[in-house]
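Write out structure tokens for NAD-dependent protein deacetylase.
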Amino acid sequence: MRKEEPMEAIKQLQKIVDDHDNIVFFGGAGVSTESGIPDFRSVDGLYNQKYDYPPETILSHTFFMKNPEEFYRFYHDKMLALTARPNAAHRKLAELEEAGKLKAVVTQNIDGLHQAAGSRKVLELHGSVHRNYCMKCHAFYDAGYVAEAEGVPHCRECGGMIKPDVVLYEEGLDQKTIQEAISVISHAQVLIVGGTSLVVYPAAGLIQYFSGDKIVLINKGATGMDKSADLLIQEPIGQVLEQIAVR
């Protein structure tokens, strides 16, 4: 699929939105970069910053269990973006859902910004920083409790170590969430894929379940799925979606 000129691409996207009322959005870290949250693989993303250990190592289950102090140092510094606010992409998706156009958001992000913008049907493939549980008694703690803790947060009730409800490397995705994501994607008329390089599996593999009418790909960089898209827009997703009228 060749990349359209920006104005023509927006016109085509507007027509797709106007003509369909069963749209699903599949998004990644690029959706939140316009809110000031770094992605992972761009030039200034997390994977290109220097720490004592590579981010892939720090964000693994083994590292968390063996070295929780270093894990939480990185986590507090780079993963807890509690002052971030929804951007134009988050707000437009919530508006599309309110209008009955968008049926679900399937996200790889853990920041909760879709819900903050007003989206209700959000399937979080990789969990959320806003949910945290004691590993011993399973007591719930919000992100504020974890953010305010010095070093490793511990449970007020039993003293157990608290773990964010985020999927670390070596951990499996929640099967109920996966099945629900497969269901909404496989029943969608339109799949809008945005802000993702589509290299993180198994999440990226969910795209294969789409068999609807149109697949739209909005991402600043190239992906392995560019040729399969019915409409390819290589621009920041917030700048693209804010131009779409909901009617």
